Amino acid sequence: MFVIMVYDAGERRNSKVLKVGRKYLHWVQNSVFEGELTEANYHKLKEEVRRKVDNEEDSVIFYKFRTMKYTEREVIGKNVDPNNFIL
Amino acid sequence: MFVIMVYDAGERRNSKVLKVGRKYLHWVQNSVFEGELTEANYHKLKEEVRRKVDNEEDSVIFYKFRTMKYTEREVIGKNVDPNNFIL
C-alpha cells in the first residue's frame, strides 16, 4: 500500500517522529513522508509513532491508499523526488 | 476531486499560503489542507499558490484523487475533522 504521513509535534517530540518516519518512509517535505509499505510495517510505524507523540498536543495523519491509479502528485517549488532516494 | 495540499514556506510567505489554502480547502493540520475541489478551482488554487511562494525556497505538494474509494485516513493525537467545518 502507499502511505502519506503528515505530522505536527511539539519541538522535543518532532525529531523523534522524524526519526521514526525515516525508518519506514521517504521524507518529501518538512513534516511529510510518503512511500510503499506492507500492512505489517504500516502497523509497526503507527505503533512507534504512538509511543513518541503526546495525544493532547500533537497530530499525525496517515493517508493510506490501496492503489495510486487514481492519484496525481504535483509540486510547486522545491521538489524532492522520493524515487531518487537510496535507503 | 479530492485534494491534499502540504506546504513548507518561509516565514513571511507561510501566512500567505495559509490564507490561499483556507480559501479553497479545509485546514486539518499545521501546513496541511484537504478537501473536495472542482478542476477549475484546483487550477485557481495552484495559480494563487504559485504567485505566493518562492520556487527556490518553498515547496508545495498537491495530491489529487479522482476517487477516495481506495483510501483510508487514520489520525494519532489531535484530530480536526474537516467535515465539521462550516465554511
Give the topology, please.
Two copies of one chain form a homodimer.
Chain A: E1 2-8, H1 11-24, E2 26-29, E3 32-36, H2 39-52, E4 59-65, E5 71-77
Task: Describe what this molecule looks like in 3D.
- Two copies of one chain form a homodimer.
- In chain A, 32% of the residues lie in helices and 34% in strands.
- By secondary structure, chain A is an alpha+beta fold.
- Chain A has a single domain, classed as Alpha-Beta Plaits (2-Layer Sandwich).
- Chain A has a four-stranded antiparallel β-sheet, covered by helices on one side.
- In chain A, a hairpin with a 2-residue loop joins strand 2 and strand 3.
- In chain A, helix 1 packs antiparallel against helix 2 (39-52).
- The model of chain A has no long low-confidence stretch (mean pLDDT 91).
- Strand 4 of chain A pairs antiparallel with strand 5 of chain B.
Feature tags:
homodimer; 2 helices; 87 residues; globular; 32% helix; CRISPR-associated endoribonuclease Cas2 (chains A, B); CRISPR_associated_Cas2 (chains A, B); 4-stranded antiparallel β-sheet; Alpha-Beta Plaits; nuclease (chains A, B); EC 3.1.-.- (chains A, B); 34% strand; alpha+beta
DSSP helix fraction of chain A: 25-40%
Query: Can you name the CATH architecture of chain A?
Result: 2-Layer Sandwich
Radius of gyration of chain A: 13 Å
How far apart the termini of chain A lie comes to 18 Å
CATH class of chain A: Alpha Beta
Average predicted local confidence, pLDDT of chain A: 91
Low confidence ranges of chain A: none
* General shape of chain A: globular
**Domains counted in the coordinates of chain A: how many?**
1
* Largest interface pair: A-B, 39 and 39 residues
- Number of beta-strand segments of chain A: 5
CATH topological fold name of chain A:
Alpha-Beta Plaits
Counting H and I runs of at least 4 residues, what is the number of helices of chain A?
2
Largest sheet of chain A, in brief, is: 4 strands, antiparallel
| Oligomeric state as shown | homodimer
Class by SSE composition of chain A: alpha+beta
Beta-strand residue percentage of chain A: 25-35%
